[in-house]
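Q: I have two molecules that I believe assemble together. Could you output C-alpha cells for the complex as a whole instead of separate predictions?
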Amino acid sequence: MGSYILRRLASTVLVMGIVAVFVFLLLHLSPGDPAAIIAGDNATSDQIAAIRRQLGLDDALPIQFFRWVFAVLHGDLGISIFSNEPVLKLIGQRVEPTLSLALTTLIVAVTLAVSFGVIAAWKVGSWIDRLLMVVSVIGFSVPVFVVGYMLIYVFSITLRWLPVQGYSPIDQGLWPWFERLILPSIALGLAYVALIARITRTAMLDVLAEDYIRTARAKGVATRSMLLKHALKNAGVPIVTVIGIGVALLIGGVVITETVFNIPGVGRLVVDAISKRDYPIIQGVILIFSGVYVLVNLAVDLSYTLLDPRIRY
Amino acid sequence: MSTLVAEPALVAASKRSRGAQLRRFARRNPTIVAGGIILGLVALLAILAPLFAGDAVTMRPAMRLRPPSAQDWLGTDHLGRDVFARMIYGAQVSLIVGLAVAAVSIVVGTFIGLMAGYFRKVDAVVMRLMDGLMSIPAILLAIALVALTRTSVSTVIIAITIPEVPRVVRLVRAVVLGVREAPYVEAAISGGTPTWKILLRHILPSTIAPLIVQATYICASAILIEAALSFLGAGTPPEIPTWGNMIAQSRLFLSRAPWTIFAPGIALALVVLAVNLLGDGLRDRLDPRLARRM
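A: Yes, here they are, computed for all two components at once.
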C-alpha cells in the first residue's frame, strides 16, 4: 500500500512535469516570435524588445524552461502583460466565485446523479429510468451556454424568480450568494449529472444481479438498506472514477458558465486574457486547472482501497 | 433460355424484401436511423445553403431585432441580418469542423496507437506524453492554441484535434495489446511477414469497429468545443457565421430577441444529439461492451 502511494505520487509528479512542458511550449513553439504575439499587432519593435527582455526570451529554451519551472514552484506564475500584476494574485482574487460555483455544482450534481442512478437501476424500465435516459441524452447534447441562456430566459426574464446574472460574495449573505449560483450550477451540472447517473445505473445493475443481493433480499433486509449498504457501496469504484474524470467537464464548463452568467471568476479571467493575448494568465490558469484535475484523480485512485477492501496494492 | 429473363414476380419479391429489410433495420436500430436522417438533412441544407438560404451577411440597420416573420423566417439579429440564413450557413462550419477533427484525430491517433501498442519501447514514452496531454482540459488547451495563432477554421480544427488524439491513441493501443499475442499474429510473425504488413493486415482491422464509434463521439465533442470557442471569442473569425458566435453576438439581446440565441442554440443541440444517437446506436450494434467515452 505504502509503495503504491509512492509510485502513484511519482507518476503524478511526472504527469504534472509533462503538463508543464506542454504549457511552456505552447508559447515558445508557436509560429512567430512570442514577444510579438504578446505585444499584439500594433506593437513597435521597441515594445517587442522590451517584452523579450522582460520574459528573458533571449536565453536558450531549456534555461528558460527551468527558470520558469523554478519560479512556478515558488508560487510565481509570472506577471500579467496587461495589468502588470502577478498572475497568482489575479487568480487569487478570482478564486472564490469559481470555487463556489464548482463546489456547489459538484455537491448538487453528485447527490442528484447518484440518487437518480440508484433509483433507475432499482426500478429498471420504469418512467424514472426512461426519464434518466432522456436527461442523459440531453445532458450530453445541449451545450452549457445554450442551457444557461434557456434557464435565464425562463426563470429570470420570464418568471422573474431568480437574478439574471452576477455573483454575490459569500460574506455578504448566504442567500444572495446561493440564489445567484442556482441557475449556473444547473447549467454547468447537467452534463455531469448525465455522466454520473448513467454510470451509477450501470454499476448498480451489475451489483443488483449478484447472488448476495438475492440473499439479502431473501433474509428480509429492508430495501433502503439493501440498496445503499449492500449495493451502492459495492458499485462505488466506477462511480467515484467517473466523478473524478468528469471534473474535466466541470473545469471546461466553468469557463463558459462564468461567461454566460457574468460571474467574475478564474474562467472570466482567462476569457478576458484571450482577447488581450495576456499569455502569462492563460498559461497560469491552464497549469492550475490541470493541476487540480490531476490531484482530484490522484485522490480518486487512492480512495479505491477505502471503498473496496478487496483492492490491495 | 427463359431462366435468363428475370421473373417479374421474383423481382417484385426481392424489392419487397429489400424494403422489408430496411424497415427491419430501422426497427432494430432506431437511433442509427434517426441520427442518420437528421444529420443527412442538416448536411444537405448546409451544402445547398447558397441556393436557398438567402443573404447571411448584409446588415440592414432598419431591420434590427425583428421577430420571426414571413420575410425573415427566424427574425433578424442586432445588425439586421437574417437569422435563418446565418443559422443555415452556421451548419457548414460545425459539420466541417466535426468531420475534420474526427478524421484527423482518428488517423493520427491510430498511427501513434499502433506504434505504442506494438513497440514496447515507444509505449512508455508515448503513453506518458498522452497522460500529460489528457490532463489539460480540452477547452482550455484549444483556447490557448487558438489564442496563439490567427483565428481561422483550420487553426480551430488543429486546436480541437490535439486534445482528442490521446483518446484515440489509448483506444487503439488497448486493442493492439489485446490482439498482439493472438495466435494468428504470432503465426504471421514466425512466418516472416514484414512488421508493417502485420500492423496493417492483422492488427488494424480489429480497431475499426471501436474506432467508428469513437469517431462519432469525437465529432460530437468537436462540434461542441468549436461552438464553445466561437462563443468565447477564441474560434472562427467573427465574420463567418457559426452557431457559437451567433449566440455570443446576441448575448445582450436575450430578453428582447430570444430567437437570435435559441435558433442557433437549438440547431447546435439537434446536430450534437443526432451525432450522439448515431454513436450510441453504432456502439450497441458494433460492440455492446464498449463503454461510452467520458
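A: One point stands out. The interface with chain A takes residues 128-129, 131-133, 135-141, 143-149, 220, 224, 227-228, 231-234, 247, 251, 254-255, 258, 261-262, 265-266, 268-269, 272-273, 276-277, 292, 294 of chain B (CB under 8 Å).
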